Amino acid sequence: MTTSEQTLIAPGSWTLDAAHSSVNFTVKHLGISKVRGRFNRFETAFVVDNDGQAAIEATVYFDSFDTGNEFRDNHVRSADILDVANLPHLTFRVPEAVKIAEEFEVTGEATIGGVTKPVTLDVEWGGVQVFPNDGKKHAGFNATGTIKRSDFNVAPGLPVAMLSDKIAIELDIQLVEPEA
Predict the structure, then answer these.
(1) Which of 80, 110, 141, 168 could form a disulfide with 26 if both were Cys (CB 3.0 to 4.6 A apart)?
(2) What sign results for the dihedral spanned by CA atoms 152, 154, 156, 162?
(3) CA distance 4 to 8
(4) What burial letters (b/e) apply to 113-151, b meaning 16+ CB within 10 Å?
(5) How many Å apart are CA 162 and CA 154, to the nearest integer?
(6) Which residue pairs from 57-64 have beta carbons closer than 8 angstroms and sit at least 24 positions apart in sequence?
(7) HSE-CB of 109 using CA atoms within 13 angstroms
């Protein structure tokens, strides 16, 4: 994407296109294999100013944890691991507006329960395209990073040999242009 293409990112509040977005994770189990899954419910605020900088906030709801295995998913949502009754979501807030570029880093504050830690995401901007179904411009990006469950006191009694401390996250986000 060239600088002239970046100017196509209209100022205003872009809305999440949830049908074309996903919040995914990968975690090692028993140190021998990876379990992949997603969170089916999340929201974001993405507001672009006149200089092409974006204010970013997001919330991921832990009750939407999904690996495709109902037994495992219910166990992970329990007090043994995610404890969704007491830790219902993760919030991510970027304290300073971010300049959108082809590739960039976003460092924000992730909060689970009462614990807030910095998290950095590597972002690849996909650009802007008109979606034929609605005639509106859609913008997209992919972001990857890692969080440590121990940083947020998630499943503190679970040994790392059982479930790795590091959790890889990948976001595929598509946004719809602001209303005129």
Answers:
(1) 168
(2) negative
(3) 7
(4) eeeeeebebebebbebeeeeeeeebbbbbebebebebee
(5) 14
(6) 57/91, 57/92, 57/93, 57/94, 58/91, 58/92, 58/93, 59/89, 59/90, 59/91, 59/92, 60/23, 60/89, 60/90, 60/92, 61/88, 61/89, 62/87, 62/88, 62/89, 62/90, 63/88, 64/39, 64/40
(7) 10
Query: What are 46-77's pLDDT values in tens digits?
Result: 999 998 899 999 999 999 999 999 999 999 99
CB 58, CB 91: distance < 8 Å: yes
Using an 8 Å Cβ cutoff, are 173 and 10 in contact?
Answer: no
Give the tens place of pLDDT for each residue, 127-143. 999 989 889 999 999 99
Rounded to 10 degrees, the C-alpha dihedral 91/19/75/170 comes to -60
Output DSSP code: residue 49.
Answer: -
Which H or E element spans position 76?
helix 70-77
